[in-house]
Amino acid sequence: MLLNGDCSDSLKKEEGTTDPPRENGLDEGEPGDETTGQEVIVIQDTGFSVKILAPGIEPFSLQVSPQEMVQEIHQVLMDREDTCHRTCFSLHLDGNMLDHFSELRSVEGLQEGSVLRVVEEPYTVREARIHVRHVRDLLKSLDPSDAFNGVDCNSLSFLSVFTDGDLGDSGKRKKGLEMDPIDCTPPEYILPGSRDRPLCPLQPQNRDWKPLQCLKVLTMSGWNPPPGNRKMHGDLMYLFVITAEDRQVSITASTRGFYLNQSTAYHFNPKPASPRFLSHSLVELLNQISPTFKKNFAVLQKKRVQRHPFERIATPFQVYSWTAPQAEHAMDCVRAEDAYTSRLGYEEHIPGQTRDWNEELQTTRELPRKNLPERLLRERAIFKVHSDFTAAATRGAMAVIDGNVMAINPSEETKMQMFIWNNIFFSLGFDVRDHYKDFGGDVAAYVAPTNDLNGVRTYNAVDVEGLYTLGTVVVDYRGYRVTAQSIIPGILERDQEQSVIYGSIDFGKTVVSHPRYLELLERTSRPLKILRHHVLNDRNEEVELCSSVECKGIIGNDGRHYILDLLRTFPPDLNFLPVPGEELPEECTRAGFPRAHRHKLCCLRQELVDAFVEHRYLLFMKLAALQLMQQKASQVESLTSMENGGLPSSEAKSEDPLGSETGSEEEGSSASGLAKVKELAETIASDDGTADPRSREVIRNACKAVGSISSTAFDIRFNPDIFSPGVRFPESCQDEVRDQKQLLKDAAAFLLSCQIPGLVKDCTEHAVLPMDGATLADVMRQRGINMRYLGKVLDLVLRSPARDQLDHIYKIGIGELITRSAKHIFKTYLQGVELSGLSAAISHFLNCFLSSYPNPVAHLPADELLSKKRNKRRKNRPLGAADNTAWAVMTPQELWKNICQEAKNYFDFSLECDSVDQAVETYGLQKITLLREISLKTGIQILLKEYSFDSRHKPAFTEEDVLNIFPVVKHVNPKASDAFHFFQSGQAKVQQGFLKEGCELINEALNLFNNVYGAMHVEICACLRLLARLHYIMGDYAEALSNQQKAVLMSERVMGIEHPNTIQEYMHLALYCFASSQLSTALSLLYRARYLMLLVFGEDHPEMALLDNNIGLVLHGVMEYDLSLRFLENALAVSTKYHGPKALKVALSSCGGQSHGSWPLGEDHEKTKESSEYLKCLTQQAVALQRTMNEIYRNGSSANIPPLKFTAPSMASVLEQLNVINGILFIPLSQKDLENLKAEVARRHQLQEASKNRDKNEEPMATEPEPAGPPEDMGSQPQAAKEDPSSPSLQG
């Protein structure tokens, strides 16, 4: 029932992180409403439309916006169906040619209705090549092979297979009308209880992929390049074509266009052939000579344009697929040419052949950033260069390992070699010249690059002007780790000793410092919590540093101040660094720490440092508040006591009228006490002498208690050199060093006593729902827990009282432990394999790891061909050429023994299994899941087919099943900070219930994200999902569908087709389809989600309860009761296990993960009544079901069952249930409720205003609102946190 039609606005519950994460940077305030209003205007210049006149087609109009470049109109025309065959043209306005790179607003006379004429330009060799490349791209536009091969940022998407094209089509509506007969039976393997986990449905065959053949061959002719006399006739190059009708022709590309010549394969005759047809476009020429081409090319382009743009746009970083179908290898001139003309950077776009990566990376950082448009331009440039650099570095690293790049020190042995390719410097993850001897040798050299990358990421995020880091990408490929870095200008000409003017090149023996570096690093010390400190060098002189000793400062020839080797930006993790004579706190020793690790570079994560400091800050505030109150209590001055809310002690009840109203006196009281402390702390810190000495004493004591480095203000920083081997500190600093050591011990204890238990608690309450190894790792890292603690996390899960409710976490954890241990072994295993034996070696490893076949035999690669003589072994072969066949003797028993050993040594966890079957049996794992995890971690790509893992007669894998091995790439992810602030503000607004305002802010965020990242990005995906949900709540189903469709496509393309995030997006999309009465589509989407979840984890997961609930309800809605029953029963079983039997009383809705009893609306509220009626009805049905079930159990399946009396459900009632289980509640309010609500919102607003002036550090206090009134309760449903567990982007 609806009063005031106010339904949507009264809904105050939304997804998002419960505590919006803060940018860990300089303290910039949130963009307040005042600033955003003015700044946004700059971006939204209104668009206008222009008319385009192109040769041979009707004029058409095109919508453009003033800040687009002329070049972008070119792109649009090259993509349009009717103009896509043109590449070499210019645009003219009133007879004047427009400059490619000028913005439209700077073009004189360009306005609404202007006519732009497309004028064909003469070709050059470069333009002709671009044209041929473009035609080839058009011919291949529906062919997925680039996505399977992981090239050019193509990736897969399968949504259109399940929705039959676009969702928004009005034509779709007729399908879904209420009771059209729909075939709802899912394939057998999707039904609950099925043990079958097939692999093939992962990549269903898309019917558009059977490409229409337009040509048989299009390649460069062997007669290239044209001889001098033909060059002077305008010949640019020659092409060879075989048409679909098997006609072989030779084509000349000349400055005026394309025509047939009379050459054959063996005879050169450049004269034009008949028909003497000259065409400016290759496509038009081919249309003339091949009817099949003409017909098929037109159909192909029609299909291409019908695809959703998100299926075709390139992703910012390459996503690789771990499975691929068997593909025919077709001739492709462009690919062949690229492979052999060492296409370094993209030469065809950039003059001067190779790009100066360092210059590009640093120049983009120097762009101005005073206002929003400048910042957007800067962030966009930074992001673009980073994604280009990552792509180039990945290609280079693969070339290095494959032996295609010459080393710069070729005479040294293989491990020591370094490479330069395309202005990028490559080094291998080995301990060269015993550099890491004291830190663990090769093992330390292997982890140093990732630590260094984390350092680069952090300094980039702080973004201090004048301080520069190197472009850094870490690539793991074929068992080797390669670090790719941009090159500091001039570094190669001089000796390292001369160039380092800050830091140390020998881990602290010789140390130098530099005032400019100290000044620059000082600016990073507050956000990064790094302490300025002194160390002694080998001459016993004190040197001041503001980073760890091995962080080096080098001034390049370009005059910029670079810092590099940031591998110890964060303080050491004492749990894994035993120091003789140092005792760890009891929490650590109880857990068996310190444990010696393989290397001494274990650092705490930045997230942990931040969490620890936050924790200490709350402690500091509480201590100070307590002391102040004790002082006040001893003074007993009635006046001040009234002002202060009458707080003799922190436990006392507050007489503050507001406090008692909210029903959280204690919170109100401590808040006002804390506000006083805050004020006091600021007064003392500003040191204007107004604070009285007793208050100073309070702050001093609190500072001392929490380990602050200042006695007048809270300020915790770490000295990253403490416990660093070889670093010595001067006598004068001994006290400071002692305090710092204590701080590090406390941080190590904090990780064990707060963070890990906090993680387990969140998992128990389903506040986070990891679904696979990667999402579990994300959840751990967000809390600052390194993966080496995985064994400890699992121990805690095992000991937890709620062990059963953590079953899914335990399974994921064990699977992650096993596959990570296997990955460590695989890495060294691969290093001994030569290139020709790669597929045999990988398939042998997979057989030992996953197949039940007891003794797989490795096939050595030498059996195909006999060579005449064995060449003698050379000292420095290229990396991948070791003729080592040790890998062939590995057995499953040996591998599993090593895995268990590795799990014990690395994670300190005892696995009880000596074969894969035992592991599967003991821990309830799935082989297919283990296969997915190991493939993703190591970059293996396998053939898409059904593997018989359990056969004891033949091995599961043959060498034909291993298709490829991809690099695993780690890189910096530059952020769009303004967009992110808008997004957070939008989330906050939505959580307070201001849906309209929230929606506007999030739309704005979406615009800004698009501005910075382009169209495809993880964060845009989160934005779209939230927008879709808001539109759904506000009743705009069509908008919700369109946004959610984009979110699904983007998640498939950017995160992977079976990433847990994609599974969730599919579920949301199904709900919105159902609401738009597209029932069959909704079902096929839910079935897809269920299949993916079975593959990624299995059936026994809390999220599966929600999914089965959705499926059951939709089937119930289309009156498929037997089928519906199977899914609902499974949902019931799973949710009973994970949420306890108490939740059963809410039959269906329990499975959503929250039991809605009567909301705080009072027992006599209409909605409560309705809800209890509803439950009664559900309970009756459930009881009837139970009876039926008992009957079946008693008499076996032959029992004859009286049909249950269900009334045909109305779609509205089913939709209402669906909303409830998906955490969306509409609460119609009565007039009185509305009044209360308004008062509540106003009161909130005042509180907010008051707390706005608080420091950012204090945010946790501002974000723990008291439950009051219906909206807040919705917001504090567990769903608020659960909604987004798998979106790492939101966790910043």
Automatic annotation (TrEMBL):
It is found in: Cytoplasm; Cytoplasmic granule. Residues 9-25, 1246-1259 have a biased composition (Basic and acidic residues). SUPFAM superfamilies: Hypothetical protein c14orf129, hspc210, TPR-like. Its main location: cytoplasm. Keywords: Cytoplasm, RNA-binding. GO terms for cellular component: cytoplasm. It comes from the Eukaryota. The keyword rRNA-binding does not apply. Belongs to the CLU family. This is Clustered mitochondria protein homolog. It comes from Jaculus jaculus (Lesser Egyptian jerboa). The gene is Cluh.
